[in-house]
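As promised in the previous annual report, we have extended the structural survey to additional targets. Below is the entry for Type IV toxin-antitoxin system AbiEi family antitoxin domain-containing protein.
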Amino acid sequence: MNHDTRTPLPLAHLAAARPRVLSAAQLRAHGISPAQAAARTRPGGTWQTLLPGVYLLHRSAATSEERLHGALLYAGRPAAEPQSGSAPPYGAAMVTGFAALVLHRFASVPPLSALEHIDVLVPAARRLRSTGCARIVRTRETPRPLEITGLPVAPVARALADAVARLTDGDTVRRLLREAVHGGHCEPAAVVAELSRARLLGRPPVASAVDALLAEGRAAAEERLYEMVREHGLPDPVWNVDLQIPDGSPLGVVDAYWPDHAVAVELNTLSPRHDEGPGWAEQVRKRERLEELGITVVHLTPRALRESPYQQATVVRTALMAATGHDPGAYVVVLPR
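The corresponding structure token record, generated without further manual editing, is:
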């Protein structure tokens, strides 16, 4: 039986919906067959095809919001998979790359309207190709997405790695990494771990940017440590010193040391890629050696200093107070660096 394509379809209740973009599966749920949808996209029709199996319910240019939803609909569940409830059929797909960084409010990336492609992260097993504005990025380790403006978005570190993977300009890479850390989006260790997982650390522009990032991250953490001591009324330590035993044998560098209490603070800025590696093993050996000499070592992370300085000050204060009831530690030589 032939259908009169000029007959209004039962979508009046969706006319005010935003964004006005639906998948073929969603249209079927509203009683609209693929043939009826195709008829609406023909010349003179009121719809258009944004991506395979994804329709715009108007003839104007797609907005940035519609492109985001459309890319996710395209990369989401297979069209034959039944829908559950009213949730958009995005499945395990999530926005990543530059589009995700825009949604995370990065200032150093172009606006969505300037992006030619919307990168969408999908499980590696999905058989799907990039097309139109949707660029497919596959992963064997699907991260837990964040919800931003109702959309599933890759965490900053993962989105950053997917964006950096397409860059060759060192200045741009450095600018993105710097904003990720100094903008408070994530820790340097998380950035480095994700870049390592993506096998990007071997690229010279990325390696150079990471070295600068780690140096800046340590400097920022040291400044927060100074502020914590000052603002929370801790006694002044000696800063950034070498410790030795009297015969000249080195014990290592600590970020802060209270000689009268034999308490040291170390900033743990090692990235996850160093866990159980030479740097990590050396840090463990140093701590064990100091504690054998009666020196209490407090490890603080940059994230903890940024997010909970009061609690970290309490940890240090407790160590200082506990030291007053103990015998003094072995004599050590304190040398400025």
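Residues 34 and 144 are 33 Å apart (CA to CA). Confidence is low (pLDDT under 50) at residues 1-9, 79-86, 272-278. These points will be discussed at the next consortium meeting with the crystallography subgroup.
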